[in-house]
Amino acid sequence: MPITERLTLSVKLGVDEWKEQVKFLLQTLKKQEGNIRTRWGPHAEDESKLEFLIGWESADAQAKFQASPDFEAVMAQLKTVMTGPPTVYFVEFKPYAPPAIIDAAYVQVITLDSLSGSANEDALKGSMDVFTGQEGCTGVTSGLSTGTDKRFVGVVGWTSLEASDAATSKFAVTDGQMSTCRVNFRFPVKGFRGL
Fold first, then answer.
1. With contact defined as beta carbons under 8 Å apart, do 52 and 39 qualify?
2. What is the CATH number of the domain that holds 52?
């Protein structure tokens, strides 16, 4: 079953500070067996935060990469530009990676942490329906994280930040602590074409 690795890095501010290290990460990921696709970009709210949604054919494929010398080489490079520990966990999105979302101009990632033991995935997914049909929304998907710390992650594609702002005020949740960020997956970096 496909799985998405969500990786958030805090890095030194300025593209020139992290460009080569991120390029090395992306090139390395493309070569890994079981890697489907990586979408990445800075948070619109704070460009010192880089968001990566890394698609894997399975959790085993990611584990194989993490146990490899390639992973060690990537981490050695990234540590030179990181300003804090990375945040990483895995999400089973349903549906998995619709192009209308991951190819949108901006992707809003809504995270609900500290879910109660009675959190219902269907109800949480239903709460995301408020975005469907809103002006500028290109699509919605969501899922629960794997592992012991349960998180609900919703992903919404947008044509603009303004469209996201207008619709987000209508979103309300009754379970967990919400955080949200918008990511520019089309962030232009010279020399990154095709990565």
1. yes
2. 3.30.70.100
Residues 76 and 106 in one domain: no
Hunting for tokens 């593209």 — which residue is that?
15
**Same domain, residue pair 99 and 175:** yes
Tokens 């194989």 belong to residue: 64
Q: How many structural domains compose the chain?
A: 2
Q: For the whole model, what pTM was predicted?
A: 0.91
Tell me the DSSP string of 20-57: HHHHHHHHHHHTSTTEEEEEEEEBSS-TTEEEEEEEES
Verify that 158 and 103 share a domain, yes or no: yes
Beta-strand ranges (E) seen in 95-162 are 106-113, 137-145, 152-158
Is there a contact between 80 and 12 (Cβ–Cβ < 8 Å)? Answer: no
Which pLDDT tens digit goes with each residue over 10-23? 999 998 999 999 99
Q: What is the pLDDT of residue 121?
A: 81
| Two tokens, residue 18 | 């992290």
The candidate with the shortest Cα–Cα distance to 106, out of 45, 182, 38, is: 182
